[in-house]
Amino acid sequence: MSAPIVRGLSELRAMVSGWKQSGETVGVVPTMGALHQGHLSLVRAAKDGCDRVIVTIFINPKQFNNPADYDNYPRTEEEDARKLAPFGVDAVYVPDGPTMYPDGFATNVSVGGLTDVLCGAHRPGHFDGVATVVSKLFLQTQADRAYFGEKDFQQLQVVTRLAADLDIPIKVVGCPTIREEDGLAMSSRNLLLSDRARVWAPALNTAMEEVAEGLLAGGDMATLRAKAVAQIERAGFTEVEYLDLRACDTLELLKTPSRPARLLAAAWLAGVRLIDNIAVG
Ligand code: AMP
What we know:
Radius of gyration: 19 Å
Largest sheet: 6 strands, parallel
Structural class: alpha/beta
Bound molecules: adenosine monophosphate
Number of helices: 11
Strand order of the largest sheet: 1-4-3-2-5-6
Distance between the termini: 44 Å
Shape: globular
Strand content: 15-25%
């Protein structure tokens, strides 16, 4: 039996209030669909941690700074519902545009500081779009726990911050990045890669692993970075937007992994923007 699809907010609210009245805990997994094993690992974690699980699928126009990226984003609703069927999720919430952003919608949620760097610096407005839609999904679902992937590490920090700042009573749970066998982080955008580009794509993660090893061996970040960028570009990428070592909590730039640190990168391959991050140490 496939998971029940819920499109309306009042229907969702009625379902959730029934669960809450019975004292059940509710988990939410926000997604933009085109589901893969990375998303499904979050669903699994939510099923383990909560009595009831809602998966949301909404391709949020507000978080796309490039209209072509929004238009090209994979849309695979039927296949998504089929993939979710074995997990026994309680609702797949698929709101339409006007449900999320009715006429006259005028509110913007903006998280300062954390969003000034990395993807925030390269994708103007992206994190305002994320913060706004995630705030709405938290309030609409009234979930007790929300599951996000470390794949989008900066996003994970931003949503954790906004839940705390806005006193939304939800626990944000971060889950590890799921990868293909060759190391490529799973992503809905991988579907947009040609067969040739798909072969080149793991070079990003390979180079990052080498930088992490070099740092742990006492290497200099600037030297390691220059070598990695050259290696990534030689593999077929056209541009490395950033390849930074940053503090896990504040995303402050680091020269050495002197505190819990993360290596984060964004790079373009055949017109597709890929991001990845790994822990250092
Ligand atoms: P998206 O549909 O790309 O907006 O992603 C929805 C959620 O799935 C986000 O919390 C992502 O961080 C998470 N996610 C995406 N790819 C992966 C992956 N490879 N491993 C773990 N989580 C992921």
